[in-house]
């Protein structure tokens, strides 16, 4: 996670400003000083903003942590569809900030924008929670409610994204700039605290609480919705304490118009009658002030370096989708604690809080002492390489999981096991051209089969003839089977003889390592009586068959057979890939924004924020496209992403090699002279890093 942005803790902390000179406006802030916290220089109003941010981040991350598994196990979508919709939602969350900034800057102002879009946010959570109630309609209604709810949540979280941090900065007087900087450290900690706690808690609400006989997704979505309602109430409670600046005008709109006018003017005058311009943006000089054109020129130099960036986000944001799906096929029992698959995401905010001071105070200083010029662009390139390595490790883990998983029947093959429920042993033989004995020994009563037996078919479907020897009596039976399916042949007593039935097993693959649970007492009911059965420990990813018998004086008893083994590979093997990708994020994201802001005028900070968020949105769209259309095995898809980012890293390194950095004085000097009246309202974080 990154201290400059809000969604996924990628939050830019600055105020959007305008390059146009405007006449002084009457002050909109209250004339009397705002109440302070315990006699300090910190306004009391920031308490409401920080608490609001914590609750909102808990709300967003808590909902998002269980989203992929909700698609997979509640809506019963495929892994590819679940991944695609997850990243479509993430992408929308990064497009909507542009709309939120436009509303705040040009129409409502920050305070009203936060209030109104938070109401939309809460409504989205309510609708999303309703879509997780099994008793409410069928799958179609659940799907519609989920899509409507997620759309409203994306509008809410994205719309308030560019407003909350900057609104907090508005609460400080200009003479308290140092306190304002410290406020942003606390603000960032509230983001990561909300993310850390919710990513750990909401999977427990989903998996450890049962409602309607299943995992309680309604509760896992409802609690984050409640936190968002609390966030809205807390923020509204501070209304009388806030300093509320009026809308300042949308600088992004001015930049887009300036670029469009320059391009259109250039093509209108392509005949050569007009004198050539030194730069293509100079064609906008007929309409726009020179200072704005100079600022846009500096901006476009940075935006050019943004072109390769989406591929990094394409890898980073798969922690909540592909990596979570990988965790479902692993064993979450750590001995001292049972970890849910969607709880592994908690490693990212946890490691961010460790890595940022570690890199700033230790690693970067050691590199500097070694005489290595570790520039910002080099740090970003190394961050990309670390993300490549993370996905290479993820691919290796995926290959190992596949090796440990049961083999699947191929074409013209079936897997068959025999379950003997009779009171004595039975000898099973397949008749025909290939008289195969399924087991060398007879199958004893209630004997656990060591493995499935593979049978070959002559066509896609075939009738098999079985001979069952029981008490010196041979019983002959026929059963029809189809290729690529797992079957269980159930043998039971039928008077003094036996009979059999062929049952298709559920799809036999390690796909749901949701939890390891012990059921000390499961309530059962027959026509005559109610009773409880002890099912014992049910392990990760295992598939069990339970047979309830009532053949003794001890009453009904349960016989458990594990016909698909539990997940063997520990979920702890995901730790290296999380560590690598988080280290890459710290080097890439934090450094990238620092570099970007040092290379562009102060008036272009809000435009850079919009462009940075758009790179994240495009990265999620890349994942959506690959997941939907690649058709690759999961390990091959991880390798594909790793190789793509490696190629992009090479391109970015070449672009960085020929890039000539501007000195801060060259960028800021002219802008300072042109717009002195806006410097007082800026939140200057260009050279300040978050302190912990």
Give structural attributes.
disordered C terminus; Growth Hormone, Chain: A; alpha+beta; 692 residues; cytoplasmic vesicle; 14% strand; peptide transport; SLC15A2; protein transport; Immunoglobulin-like
Explain this structure to me?
The chain is of the alpha+beta class. The protein has 3 domains: 211 residues, Growth Hormone, Chain: A (Up-down Bundle); 197 residues, MFS general substrate transporter like domains (Growth Hormone, Chain: A); 102 residues, Sandwich (Immunoglobulin-like), CATH 2.60.40. The chain is built from 17 helices and 18 strands. The chain has a 4-stranded mixed beta sheet, with no helix packed on it. A 4-stranded antiparallel beta sheet has the order 7-6-9-10, with no helix packed on it. Strand 14 and strand 15 form a beta hairpin. Helix 6 packs across helix 12. The longest helix is centred in the first third of the chain and has 32 residues. The protein is elongated, with a radius of gyration of 31 Å.
């Amino acid at each position: 996670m990154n201290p400059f942005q809000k969604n996924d803790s990628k939050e830019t902390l600055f105020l959007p400003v305008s390059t146009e000179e405007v006449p002084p406006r009457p002050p909109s802030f209250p004339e009397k000083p705002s109440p302070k916290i315990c006699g300090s220089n910190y306004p009391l109003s920031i308490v409401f903003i920080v608490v609001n941010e914590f609750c909102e981040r808990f709300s967003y991350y808590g909902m998002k942590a269980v989203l992929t598994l909700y698609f997979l196990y509640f809506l019963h979508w495929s892994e590819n569809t679940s991944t695609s919709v997850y990243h479509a939602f993430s992408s929308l969350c990064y497009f909507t900030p542009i709309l939120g900034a436009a509303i705040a800057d040009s129409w409502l102002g920050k305070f009203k924008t936060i209030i109104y879009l938070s109401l939309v946010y809460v409504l989205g959570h309510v609708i999303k929670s309703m879509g997780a109630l099994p008793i409410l309609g069928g799958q179609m209604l659940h799907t519609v409610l989920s899509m409507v709810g997620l759309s409203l949540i994306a509008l809410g979280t994205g719309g308030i994204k560019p407003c909350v941090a900057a609104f907090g900065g508005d609460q400080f007087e200009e003479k308290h700039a140092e306190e304002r900087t410290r406020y942003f450290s606390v603000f960032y900690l509230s983001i990561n605290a909300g993310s850390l706690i919710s990513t750990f808690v909401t999977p427990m609400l989903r998996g450890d609480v049962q409602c309607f006989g299943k995992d309680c997704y309604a509760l896992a979505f409802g609690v984050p919705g409640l936190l968002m309602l609390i966030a809205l109430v807390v923020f509204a409670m501070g209304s009388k304490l806030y300093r509320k600046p009026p809308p300042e005008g949308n600088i992004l709109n001015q930049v887009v118009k300036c670029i469009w006018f320059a391009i259109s003017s250039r093509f209108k005058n392509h005949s050569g009658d007009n004198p050539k311009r030194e730069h293509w943006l100079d064609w906008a000089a007929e309409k726009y002030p020179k200072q704005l054109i100079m600022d846009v020129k500096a901006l476009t130099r940075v935006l050019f370096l943004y072109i390769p960036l989406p591929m990094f986000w394409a890898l980073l944001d798969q922690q909540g989708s592909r990596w979570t799906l990988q965790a479902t096929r692993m064993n979450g029992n750590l001995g001292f604690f049972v970890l849910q698959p969607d709880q592994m995401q908690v490693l990212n905010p946890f490691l961010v809080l460790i890595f940022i001071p570690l890199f700033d105070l230790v690693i970067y200083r050691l590199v500097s002492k070694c005489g290595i010029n570790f520039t910002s662009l080099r740090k970003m390139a190394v961050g990309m390489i670390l993300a490549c390595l993370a996905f290479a490790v993820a691919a290796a883990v995926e290959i190992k999981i596949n090796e440990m998983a049961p083999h699947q029947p191929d074409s013209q093959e079936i897997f068959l096991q025999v379950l003997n429920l009779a009171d004595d042993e039975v000898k099973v033989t397949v008749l025909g051209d290939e008289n195969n004995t399924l087991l060398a020994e007879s199958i004893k009563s209630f004997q656990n089969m060591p493995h499935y037996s593979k049978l070959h078919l002559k066509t896609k479907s075939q009738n098999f003839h079985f001979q069952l020897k029981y008490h010196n009596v041979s019983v002959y039976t026929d059963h029809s089977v189809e290729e690529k399916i797992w079957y269980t042949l159930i043998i039971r007593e039928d008077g003094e003889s036996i009979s059999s039935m062929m049952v298709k097993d559920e799809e036999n693959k390690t796909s749901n390592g949701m939890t390891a649970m012990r059921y000390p007492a499961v309530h059962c009911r027959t026509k005559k009586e109610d009773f409880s059965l002890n099912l014992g420990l049910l392990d990760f990813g295992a598939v069990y068959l339970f047979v309830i018998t009532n053949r003794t004086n001890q009453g009904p008893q349960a016989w458990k057979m594990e016909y698909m083994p539990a997940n063997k590979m520990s979920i702890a093997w995901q730790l290296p890939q999380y560590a690598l990708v988080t280290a890459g994020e710290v080097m890439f994201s934090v450094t990238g924004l620092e570099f970007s802001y040092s290379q562009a005028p102060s008036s272009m900070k809000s435009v850079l924020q919009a462009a940075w968020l758009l790179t994240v949105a495009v990265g999620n769209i890349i994942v959506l496209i690959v997941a939907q259309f690649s058709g690759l095995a999961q390990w091959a898809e991880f390798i594909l992403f790793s190789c793509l980012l490696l190629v992009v890293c090479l391109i970015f390194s070449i672009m960085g090699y020929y890039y000539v950095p501007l000195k801060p004085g060259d960028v800021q000097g002219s802008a300072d002279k042109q717009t002195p009246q806006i410097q007082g309202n800026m939140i200057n974080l260009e050279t300040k890093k978050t302190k912990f």
